[in-house]
Amino acid sequence: MTTTYRNKPDWFKINIHNGEEYKQVKKVILENKLHTVCEEARCPNRNECWNKGTATFLILGRICTRACRFCGVENGNPRQNIDADEPFRIAKAVKALKLKHAVITSVTRDDLPDGGATYFALTIQSIRKYIQDCSIEVLIPDFSGNENSIDIVLDARPDILNHNIETVPRLYPLVRAKASYERSLMILRKASRAGFITKSGLMVGLGEKREELIDAMKDLRNAGCHILTIGQYLQPKSGKMPVEHYYSPEDFNYLKAIGMEMGFRYVESGPFVRSSYNAPKHFEKL
Length: 286
Prior knowledge:
Mean pLDDT: 90
Low-confidence stretches: none
Number of strands: 8
Oligomer: single chain
CATH superfamily: Aldolase class I
Order of helices and strands: HEHHEHEHEHEHHEHEHEH
Number of domains: 1
Distance between the termini: 28 Å
Helix content: 25-40%
Largest sheet: 8 strands, mixed
Strand content: 5-15%
Strand order of the largest sheet: 1-2-3-4-5-6-7-8
Shape: globular
CATH topology: TIM Barrel
CATH class: Alpha Beta
Radius of gyration: 18 Å
Structural class: alpha/beta
């Protein structure tokens, strides 16, 4: 890979434009009282995706029970609060936006016995009930390694099971102390062996070494992961992990080439790439 940058490079900029599609997405989200990871995690691609008429829905509220040091989502105690009507409202929003590929994710809910798995299943079922020609991708938390919870989601038959390993194992204690690298690989392995298309994502720029990154990619392939996303880590707000270095566009092209050589069916690699960025295209490419 080429030389990385300690400070944000000049080319690391986003064009902000709010067109009619953007306004329609915002209107549908507000009318249905929904949350999106685009907003809660301060995603750099929100304008681009909303201008394409798509968004990633965030279920189970906006308060996460964990406090990962890379994430901008609010953390705290949700006190087992659940919005029972949310799956239906998400289906309404998917229909209103005429989505052909819906992406559903959630905060981590360690306060719930099944980690919220039942509500993933209910959301999948609700979308399928009202929209017949929409593929569904779920980006799930680790459910504390509860295999029964994973089975609940898989039994609802999502088209893609996405679970991010986020970073290399050495950085887990620093970046996501309550998570487990091996646990995340187990989830992907379990879903892949059950015949599901699996997907995972890595952030770069947290202080990982190139060899560690390549090894993590190998681990994902060995776990049966089919689709990989690689993007630049950006500090979401003060108090979170600082960026150790910025990767160049050439670096991301290199990582994509390495991933494709490893046998991933598709690799989305770029500075602003996030888990659900270009998600409909990933499904179409399979």
